[in-house]
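Hi, here's the filled form for the chain we discussed.

Project: internal
Contact: R.S.
Residues: 150
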Amino acid sequence: MNRYIALLGFIVVVLGGGLLIGYLTLPGEWYAGLAKPFFNPPNWIFGPVWSVLYLLIAVAGWRVWLRDPHGVAMRIWIAQLVLNFLWSPTFFGLQQMGLGLLVILALLVAILGFMATAAKVDRLAGWLFAPYAAWVAFATLLNASLWWLN
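And the returned structure, exactly as it came back:
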């Protein structure tokens, strides 16, 4: 039973933290006024996509934590979560697209690092990050394009 309470804790921290940061750093007028690339998705897509991704991130972290709570994969999982939670305040809050690009590049490296190290501890946990890696790779391209265009 304790393991499922831990899962709930991971979900609350990751999904709750992500939703809270998203709410506190809504894009607003500044973002609406930016020149955007042709592949910029509609704003409504971000909430559902991030909600699913945050659930996958939480489950992956929980699975690794159950097997090796102090290992390298868990430390990288924590690092990627910090970088993830840092990006919105940097990009939207501070309106620093260049600094946001550096944060998201570091995030992408951390995601790939987690996938590689987690696979040795729990193969499924590593694969749970695949959609996250794809989305953040796309978001990195989007961030870079916004920075370039503006």
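Let me know if anything looks off before we file it.
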